[in-house]
Amino acid sequence: MELNAYLHFNGNCDEAFKFYEQVLGGKIEMRSTFGESPMAAQMPAMKDKIVHMRIRIGDRVLMGSDSPPERFSPPQGFSLSLGTRTPAEAEKIFAALSAGGQVHMAMAESFFAKRFGMLVDKFGIPWMVVCQQEA
Q1: Strand pairing of 126-131 and 27-33?
Q2: Cα–Cα distance measured from residue 62 to residue 123, given in angstroms and rounded to the nearest whole number
Q3: What is the longest distance spanned by two Cα atoms in the chain?
Q4: I need a labelling partner for 28 at 20 to 30 A (CA). Which of 7, 38, 52, 58 fits?
Q5: How far apart are CA 45 and CA 66, in angstroms?
Q6: In angstroms, rounded to a whole number, what is the distance separating the alpha carbons of residues 88 and 12?
């Protein structure tokens, strides 16, 4: 069994995944637009939007798509948790993900981690960045 997160975007899935690929060192494995799908005729306004995208980050997969505007609602009630090997890596990734977004808890040492911080990125996705211990 495998459990992966699937994110819904407000028309900027492609931009978000390219950003995650760069910032997180991921690799986009699959990209498909509504126009390339069997739903192309039913959704002409979405033809250039993402119907499914998949990125591998380390040994995990993150998937996403663009929601039709009338069906989109901002993410709430969860965060993607990203663990790093070193505090320096945590600081670097936190800074990159939070650029243009909103910091909810600044990156700092905590009782359970060498570094921990919470943010919502410029695409509206909530993240927790944590470094449990130094490598």
Answers
A1: unpaired
A2: 15
A3: 54
A4: 38
A5: 12
A6: 29
